[in-house]
Amino acid sequence: MQQVANDTSLALDKDWKTNTGLALGILNFRADELAKIEPSPGYEQMHSYMVELAKETHLFTDSYARGIDHLDSELITAANVHLSNMTAVMKNATLELDRLNSNP
């Protein structure tokens, strides 16, 4: 996102779009894999954060890819919102992990 923000001509560059699409696909695949992990007892809350992170990841990648493909600033703005949501979920997951580690 930062690259295209710095150089909007990238949105028209076929190679950049292909590489970005591949990266977004990998991100989606990894999100799915993360959400499929079966939580150990006591880690259910952590797992719920991972499922929420996967959901926001899919929303982000979809909005961003469509926004770039259609040069739609509203979709790119929506992608930024989902990216912020992802960051918030990761912060909550980190707090939960800290809580779990402090209570063995």
What does this protein look like?
The protein contains four helices and no strands. The protein has helices at residues 2-6, 14-36, 44-70, 73-102. 14% of the residues are buried. Helix 2 (14-36) runs antiparallel to helix 3 and helix 3 runs antiparallel to helix 4 (73-102). The model has no long low-confidence stretch (mean pLDDT 92). The protein has 104 residues and is mainly alpha-helical. It has one domain (2-102).
Ordered list of secondary-structure elements with their pairings:
Elements: H1 2-6, H2 14-36, H3 44-70, H4 73-102
Helix pairs in contact: 2-3, 3-4
How many distinct folded domains? 1
What's the N-to-C terminus distance? 39 Å
Question: Outline, from the CA principal axes?
Answer: elongated
- Uncertain runs are none
Write down how many β-strands occur, each being a DSSP E stretch of 2 or more residues. Answer: 0
Counting DSSP H or I runs of 4 or more residues, the number of helices is 4
Order of helices and strands: HHHH
| Rg for CA atoms | 16 Å
